[in-house]
Amino acid sequence: MSREIIRTDNAPRAIGPYSQAVRVGETVYLSGQIALDPGTMELVTGGIAAQTRRVFDNLRAVCEAAGGDLARIVKLTIYLTDLRHFAQVNEVMSEYFRAPYPARAAIGVAALPREAAIEMEAIMSLSG
């Protein structure tokens, strides 16, 4: 099965040797997104809620570039430098997703690139 590299200017460009997403068949693997503004490549300000919204906006842009949307995400992995932000992240997530929700994990980490407070990666299905 061939791989298709997904790229959009509506999400931050990769800050390392990776693709924004890779499509294999009807499955799209979205690389981790931090709260970078795609226009400036700077981390957004305003705390965890603002960073979480920017991450979801970035993921949405990559989903759309691949021919899908956030509702097609089947697995979401969230990395947080402070698990005390878990409830706020859930509140923001409820602005972007409706039931049935994707499978999800939230993992506490020591640090993230560019001193971000949150990073998310996802798997999206284009079938069904």
How does this model look, in words?
By secondary structure, the chain is α+β, with helices and mostly antiparallel strands. The protein has a single domain (3-125), classed as RutC-like (60s Ribosomal Protein L30, Chain: A). The chain contains 2 helices and 6 strands. It has helices spanning 47-65, 86-96, and strands at residues 3-6, 21-24, 27-33, 73-80, 103-108, 118-125. It has a 6-stranded mixed β-sheet with strand order 1-2-3-6-4-5, with helices on one face. The longest helix has 19 residues, at 47-65. The protein is globular. The two termini are 19 Å apart. The relative contact order is 0.23. The model has no long low-confidence stretch (mean pLDDT 97).
Q: Tags for this entry?
A:
128 residues, alpha+beta, 60s Ribosomal Protein L30, Chain: A, 6-stranded mixed beta sheet, 6 strands, 23% helix, globular
Oligomerization state: single chain
CATH fold-level label = 60s Ribosomal Protein L30, Chain: A
Q: Output the helix-strand order.
A: EEEHEHEE
Uncertain spans: none
CATH superfamily: RutC-like
| Largest sheet entry | 6 strands, mixed
Short description:
With about 130 residues, this protein is of the alpha+beta class. The protein has helices spanning about 45-65, 85-95; strands at about 5, 20-25, 25-35, 75-80, 105-110, 120-125.
Protein topology:
Elements: E1 3-6, E2 21-24, E3 27-33, H1 47-65, E4 73-80, H2 86-96, E5 103-108, E6 118-125
Helix pairs in contact: 1-2
